[in-house]
Each structure stands twice: as structure tokens, then as C-alpha cells.
Amino acid sequence: LGSVCRAASSLLAPLRLPPPSPRRRPRMAALKRPFASAEGPAAGAPIAVAVHGGAWSIPDALKERNLRACEAAADAAYAVLSKGGKAVDAVEVAVNVLENDTSLNAGRGCSLTQAGEPECDALIMDSEDLRCGAVAGVRVANPISLARRVMEKTEHVLLVGEGAMKFAQSEGMPPAAREYLVTAESEEEWRTWRGYRGNVQSLFAASGEPEPHDTVGCVALDAEGGLACGTSTGGVVGKRVGRVG
Question: Taking the CB of residue 130, how many other CB atoms lie within 10 A of it?
């Protein structure tokens, strides 16, 4: 992953591309490749951010909400980068936006386990020192923020389950109430899956083939050439308790 970050940084740094035309917006992703503002510490330096809301069969009723969430996340990250902020800050802010949107499978609105409960996973990485942090099987409002605490405040890379939740509480991040994370849509998706037990299948897959919600994510390049990436997910509906990813 470190090699990927270094390679991506070298590829993105020389970019001088304008923002994409509104007429050609991808349905589930948002991209910005402008320059740092004059008031930033590296005025004129290229900055870039790309976010995605997962790859799955998006129901028509959710397409606009998914796109708005991606655009809001890209805008939030761009606001950080354009003021000279670090890529890792932009990534956390963007993924927080995605986690807070109930139309996506991360944080609020996440898919439920076989037992009908939410378990979330997240990862973040910073090219500045090639550190990364991750959590799995957690129940907090913003798993990406907890993953960043693991990266910055522990000597570990991954914390899971009970240990991760104890660490979250020590960092002032209390458990999220089930009512906050679980939406009516995710409950309906789980009930539908239960009717097809043993054939993990998304409620929304138009083709009828297994195609559940997917991980959301962001990658950002700051004006100093720093690169960071982050992902967050609720996994797949009907997954075994303790399944990661």
C-alpha cells in the first residue's frame, strides 16, 4: 500500500486539469483537480481529491442522494485542501460526510450482520510517513475517525471488536446507538436477505445476482505533495458476525 501511495503521488503531482464538466459527472463519484488558493502556503500548487460511494446496483430512488453525498464529500475535502490543509485531514472530513449519509453503506445506514446488528470497518493511510490505522467490528458514528486515532495514538495498525471499542471510549468516542446507525432501509435489506438465507443477495440488485452495497472511500493530494487515502464500510448484508471488510 505504501508503494501505491508513492506511485500515485508521483502521478498526481504534475496534474493541471480543470474540474470535470457537470454534464459528465460520474454517478457514484466526485473528482476535483484544481489548485491551492492564493492564501494557501503553496499557492498555485496542484491539489486533487476523488471520492466514491461504492460500486453496486443503485436503485433509482437513491441515485441523486448518492451523487449529492459524493459531491458534498468532495467539496468538504476541497475546502480543506484549498486552504493549505493536509491530505489526511481532507480524507477524514470527506469520509465523515459519506459515513453520515444514510444512503451509503458506511456509518449510518450500514448493512447488517447475520444477527441483524451493525459492525463497521475503516482504514486510513498517510503517505507522509507511510503510517496507517484501521478498525473492524466497531459501532461508532464515524469509524474513519477512530481509525485515524489508531494510526496516530497507538503503535498498532488494526484494532478490532471489544478492544477497538474500549480504545474508542478512552478517546472520547462513545458507542453509537443502534437507532443511530440502523435505518429503515437497512432493516428492510436485512429482512429480505433473511428470506434468502445462504444466498447473500442485495435487495437492490436489479439483475437478481448478489450485488450488495460497497465500501466508500476518498484519496486526496495536498499542496505539499502529500497523499492520503481512507475507506469505510458496513460490509455486506448477512455477513457472519466478526467478518471484516
Answer: 12
Residue 13 CB: number of other CB atoms within 10 A? 13
Question: How far apart are alpha carbons 228 and 244 in whole angstroms?
Answer: 22
Answer yes or no: 215 catalytic.
yes
Q: What is the residue-wise DSSP string for 99-121? A: HH-TTSSSSTT--BBTTS-B-EE
- Supply the pLDDT for residue 35: 52
Alpha helices in 160-228 (DSSP H): 161-170, 178-181, 184-195
Do 28 and 70 touch, CB atoms closer than 8 A? yes
Which DSSP letter does residue 208 get? S
Residue 43: per-residue pLDDT: 59
Cell digits of residue 112: 447488517
Distance of alpha carbon 6 from alpha carbon 185, whole angstroms: 39
C-beta separation of 199 from 191 below 8 A: no
**Helix, strand, or coil (residue 75):** helix
Given the residues 113, 215, 231, 233, the one annotated as active site: 215
Q: Can you tell me the distance from the alpha carbon of 119 to that of 136, in angstroms, rounded to the nearest whole number?
A: 7
Average pLDDT over residues 183-197: 88
Q: Give tens-digit pLDDT for 1-53.
A: 444 444 445 544 444 344 444 433 333 566 665 554 444 455 568 999 999 99
What is the arithmetic mean of pLDDT over 209-227? 82
